[in-house]
């Protein structure tokens, strides 16, 4: 009972597919473990280690956002950065960072200090800072459309 060439090819393809499937599962498990480790590192970084101020340990609906806001604010205080740099550094989602930046802009806590190429994307981006020594002072002599300066 010799197997035909077609049957041999079919068995070989099945074995190859089986090996590929096992390899893919192992790779997927490895990626999941790596992602879990990265998340643990980011969570510890966001918490600042194991010590948190006692008022942030209380349960409340806004404590998480206050902690994020402070983390983002302090990150921009170090040096001028893009929102992507802060997202990578802190682990806070970029859309949350842009929301916090908008809040800080409305309060006058942050400014775009320069526009340059982003080191990650190589596109032009705004570099924000919360360091008031780097803020630009708006020109008071600029004309205002709605000002009655007669």
Shape category? elongated
Count of separate DSSP helical elements: 5
List the helices and strands in order.
Answer: HHHHHEE
Question: Mind describing the biggest β-sheet?
Answer: 2 strands, antiparallel
Query: How many DSSP-defined strands?
Result: 2
Radius of gyration: 26 Å
Distance between the termini: 107 Å
User: What portion of the residues fall into strands of 2 or more residues?
Assistant: 5-15%
Main sheet: strand order: 1-2
Structural class: mainly alpha
Q: Regions with pLDDT < 50 over 5+ consecutive residues?
A: 49-59
Indicate the topology:
Layout: H1 5-47, H2 54-57, H3 63-78, H4 83-90, H5 94-107, E1 111-117, E2 124-129
Descriptive notes:
The chain is mainly α. The protein has two domains: 9-42; 64-134, Winged helix-like DNA-binding domain superfamily/Winged helix DNA-binding domain (Arc Repressor Mutant, subunit A, Orthogonal Bundle). It has helices at 5-47, 54-57, 63-78, 83-90, 94-107, and strands spanning 111-117, 124-129. The chain has a two-stranded antiparallel ribbon. A hairpin with a 6-residue loop joins strand 1 (111-117) and strand 2. Helix 3 (63-78) crosses helix 5 and helix 4 (83-90) packs across helix 5 (94-107). The longest helix is centred in the N-terminal third of the chain and has 43 residues, at 5-47.
Summarize, please:
By secondary structure, the chain is mainly alpha-helical. It has two domains: 34 residues; 71 residues, Winged helix-like DNA-binding domain superfamily/Winged helix DNA-binding domain (Arc Repressor Mutant, subunit A, Orthogonal Bundle), CATH 1.10.10. Helices cover 57% and strands 9% of the residues.
């Amino acid at each position: 009972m010799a197997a035909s060439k077609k049957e041999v090819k079919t068995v070989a393809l099945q074995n190859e597919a089986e090996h590929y499937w096992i390899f893919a599962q192992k790779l997927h498990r490895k990626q999941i473990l790596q992602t879990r480790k990265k998340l643990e590192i980011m969570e510890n970084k966001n918490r600042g280690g194991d010590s948190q101020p006692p008022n942030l340990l209380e349960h409340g609906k806004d404590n998480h956002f206050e902690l994020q806001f402070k983390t983002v604010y302090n990150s921009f205080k170090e040096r001028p950065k893009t929102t992507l740099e802060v997202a990578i550094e802190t682990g806070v989602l970029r859309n949350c960072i842009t929301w916090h930046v908008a809040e800080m802009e409305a309060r006058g806590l942050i400014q775009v200090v320069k526009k340059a190429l982003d080191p990650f994307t190589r596109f032009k981006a705004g570099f924000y800072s919360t360091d008031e020594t780097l803020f630009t002072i708006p020109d008071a002599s600029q004309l205002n459309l709605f000002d009655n300066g007669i």
